[in-house]
Amino acid sequence: QKEVEQDPGPLSVPEGAIVSLNCTYSNSAFQYFMWYRQYSRKGPELLMYTYSSGNKEDGRFTAQVDKSSKYISLFIRDSQPSDSATYLCATRSGGSYIPTFGRGTSLIVHP
Amino acid sequence: DAGVTQSPTHLIKTRGQHVTLRCSPISGHKSVSWYQQVLGQGPQFIFQYYEKEERGRGNFPDRFSARQFPNYSSELNVNALLLGDSALYLCASSLDATGPPGELFFGEGSRLTVL
């Protein structure tokens, strides 16, 4: 079993839809939870990170962590074609700066 | 300000050859990490360097090696290339080795194809 599981998709939605992207993880020591966006042929860029459980909102993006169920979510409101990319979830423990990545979910937002 | 720069951007090698990939971190960043991203997978950690010392190593064979120079730039070397080494190699820089995840910045990667 991989430490971080993520459905690869692709997930195809119409413009304006609410998108829900999810990951599960297995290591209870993970305390930091990140979402990266990766456009085709580019390096990942950090979108959001949260520490421990709870929600964090940034514009159209909301990150949610439920440590009791080891479940990580990213919600995108009013999705745009420019949101089309691969979204990678990542986690790490407090004692390590090295994140463990999921395989990424490919998102396609069509006009 | 320049971001993380990697070279070369693309390269093609044959099995058994050697490759050197280079990375220049963001100015002022002292930590460099290397990741391998196979098509359809997330980045896999290879090495982390801070102040020219290895701080972490992932589950990769000894054919993979790296170093960091006094100016904080870094090289990743892979010997005896295998077909399975074909991947996007990503370099990430950060101010230090233990900062919050918001400080990890990735380059655009070097895409290696092994024939």
Question: What does this protein look like?
Answer:
The complex is a heterodimer of chains A (111) and B (115). Helix content of chain A is 0%, strand content 58%. Chain A contains no helices and 11 strands. In chain A, strand 9 and strand 10 form a beta hairpin. The mean pLDDT of chain B is 92. Classes of the chains: A mainly beta (111), B mainly beta (115). At the A-B interface, strand 5, strand 9 and strand 10 of A face strand 5, strand 9 and strand 10 of B.
Fold blueprint:
The complex is a heterodimer of chains A (111) and B (115).
Chain A: E1 4-6, E2 11-14, E3 19-25, E4 30-38, E5 45-51, E6 54-58, E7 61-66, E8 71-76, E9 85-93, E10 100-101, E11 105-110
Parallel strand pairs in A: 2-11
Antiparallel strand pairs in A: 1-3, 3-8, 4-5, 4-9, 6-7, 7-8, 9-10, 9-11
Chain B: E1 5-7, E2 10-13, E3 19-24, E4 31-37, E5 44-50, E6 53-57, E7 64-68, E8 74-78, E9 87-94, E10 105-106, E11 110-114
Short description:
Chain A has 111 residues and is mainly β. Chain A contains no helices and eleven strands. In chain A, the strands form two sheets. In chain A, strands 2, 4, 5, 9, 10 and 11 form a six-stranded mixed sheet that branches.
